[in-house]
Amino acid sequence: MKINSGALLAFLFVMAGCNDSENDLEQRAHLGDVAAQFELAQCYIHGDGVARDAEQAVKWWQEAAEQGHAKAQYSLGVAYQHGDGVTKDVEKAVQWFQKSAEQDIPQAQFNLARCYYEGLGVPKDVVQAVQWYQKAAEKGHLFAQCNLGLCYLHGEGVERDGLKAVEWLEKAAGQGDALAQNELGRCYIKGGDSISKNSALAFQWFQKSAEQGNADGQAYLAMCYHFGEGTEVDMEKAITWYQKAAQQDNVSALMNLAGYYRDRDQKAMFNCLKKAAELGDSEASLMLGLCYFDGRGVKADLEKAAYWMKKSAAQGNEYAKELLNKKPFSMFF
Question: What mean pLDDT is predicted for residues 206-216?
Answer without folding.
Answer: 98
